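Input (structure):
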């Protein structure tokens, strides 16, 4: 972590009031922490858009395990990308549905491609990809 630098910003009072309500609702101790988090989030987003930065992500999906060969297809996809898939969690939600959460590491482009492939497999009811930086910025 580098030296702390103080700086001032000019902001519309209505926007500041909205921001203050937001940071109170989210439990921030002060504006500085909230602004630091916004800056970090923007930097992570830039890395995702670049496509070549190392990222980590989770793919969460729900599927009906009775769909023919679906579990085998999903497992095969994971094995095809064994360098990127670093962990998997499988949960039986009920007699028919399963939740699977995969943790992936690689470039954002690789992770997005793998997620698209998995979520596009026939029988996957729904799912979502969450990406973040594998190299966190300073606190």
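Output (sequence):
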């Amino acid at each position: 972590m580098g030296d702390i630098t103080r700086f001032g910003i000019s902001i519309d009072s209505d926007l500041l009031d909205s921001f203050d309500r937001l940071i109170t609702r989210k439990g921030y101790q002060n504006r500085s922490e909230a602004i630091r988090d916004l800056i970090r989030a923007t930097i992570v987003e830039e890395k995702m858009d670049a496509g070549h930065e190392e990222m980590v992500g989770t793919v969460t999906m729900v599927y009906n395990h009775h769909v023919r060969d679906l579990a085998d297809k999903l497992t095969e996809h994971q094995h095809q990308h064994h360098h990127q898939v670093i962990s998997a969690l499988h949960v039986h939600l009920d007699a028919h549905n399963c939740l699977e959460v995969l943790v992936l590491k690689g470039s954002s482009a690789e992770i997005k491609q793998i997620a698209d492939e998995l979520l596009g497999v026939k029988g996957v009811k729904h799912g979502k990809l969450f990406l973040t930086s594998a190299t966190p910025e300073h606190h």
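Notes: Residues 39 and 137 are 10 Å apart (CA to CA). The chain has two domains: 13-50, 54-133.
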